Amino acid sequence: MENEKLVNLAKTAMIHSYSPYSRFKVGAAALSDEGSIYTGCNIENASYGATMCAERVAIYASIAAGNKNIKKIAIVSSSDKFTYPCGMCRQVMAEFMQADGIIVLSQGEETKEYRIGDLIPNVFHFSN
Length: 128
Ligand code: THU
Known about the structure:
128 residues, alpha+beta, Cytidine Deaminase, domain 2, 30% helix, 25% strand, binds tetrahydrodeoxyuridine
């Protein structure tokens, strides 16, 4: 039920994807430990490096609203295959999710679930 709601919100966010260069649409919905949900889509730029992934848009929206603990994030895309988060998004997820935080991938009628701790083992954390 929770997954279905997140996936549906991610699909709605994907409608707003700005992806004229890759024509690859992505949507994401991040659930905080307080129960609030923030969504994102990928936003590309003519200067390709300025492109932002859907997952980070959703996570950063949550941070900006004051919710720094994400417990689950759903990801959908326009591809006919499951879309896994890129390395940079995994690193950002690891910053704001516990190792047992869940990533839900949806494609067609199927879903897959992963723990962020498994998608980015031995993650870099800064300490001094
Ligand atoms: N993209 C995402 O939004 N999330 C990912 O995890 C991988 C890639 C976007 C960035 C770019 O707009 C397009 O997909 C192709 O790389």
